Amino acid sequence: MDDKQVSPADLEKIRGVSSLLGVGEVECDKCGKIIKHLDRYCLNAHECPICEALLDNTADRGSHFGEHPSETPRGTRYCVDCSLKAGYLRMVRNKKTGVVFPSMFISRDEEAVA
Ligand SMILES: [Zn+2]
Ligand SMILES: [Zn+2]
Q1: Which ligand is nearest to the CA of 66?
Q2: How far is the CA of 76 from the centre of ligand 2 (A)?
Q3: What is the dihedral of CA 66, 69, 74, 76, to 10 degrees?
Q4: How far, in Å, from the CA of 18 to the mean position of ligand 1?
Q5: Is residue 79 situated within a structural domain?
Q6: Strand partners for 6
Q7: Chain centroid offset of residue 22 CA
Q8: Residue 48: other Cβ atoms inside 10 A
Q9: Domain count, the chain
Q10: Could you tell me the distance, in angstroms and rounded to a whole number, from the CA of residue 25 to the centre of ligand 1?
Q11: Nearest ligand, CA 73
Q12: Which ligand neighbours the alpha carbon of 30 most closely?
């Protein structure tokens, strides 16, 4: 990752969160919206998608999912709207092109949009 990038979000808050592109169609665990193929979304690997418990490490997660035996252990998906609400993504503008898009990090050619 480019070390000149800075995070617009609280680093503690985005611990365990990754910004990903949808593969196929998946559902947002927060609002149920469909995240379309190649749409951006965030995955919080520390949050149980079923009961919203926050789990600090993978060992906790493994034993926690024993409580939800029918579910495959995974993190919680946040669509762009829910990611913006949770503070995982910010809207940033590319200074050269003026294009505004949601991002977890801001590179030196970009600025946060209030
Ligand atoms: Zn959502
Ligand atoms: Zn749970």
Answers
A1: 2
A2: 10
A3: -100
A4: 15
A5: yes
A6: 106
A7: 11
A8: 22
A9: 1
A10: 13
A11: 2
A12: 1
The distance between the two most distant Cα atoms of the chain, rounded to a whole number of Å, is 50
For residue 97, being part of any structural domain is answered with yes
- Range of the structural domain that residue 55 is part of: 17-112
- Residue 5 in any domain: the answer is no
**Residue 40 Cα to ligand 1 middle (Å):** 11
Residue pLDDT tens, the chain, 114 long = 445 566 666 677 788 899 999 999 999 999 999 999 999 999 999 999 999 998 887 778 778 988 898 888 889 999 999 999 999 999 999 999 999 999 998 899 999 997
Q: Do 16 and 46 meet the contact criterion of CB atoms below 8 Å apart?
A: yes
Question: Rounded to 5 degrees, what angle do the CA atoms 108, 94, 39 make?
Answer: 110
In this structure, how many other beta carbons lie within 10 angstroms of the beta carbon of residue 35? 24
Helices assigned H by DSSP within 32-94: 58-64, 80-86
Give the pair of three-digit tokens for residue 66.
Answer: 């024993």
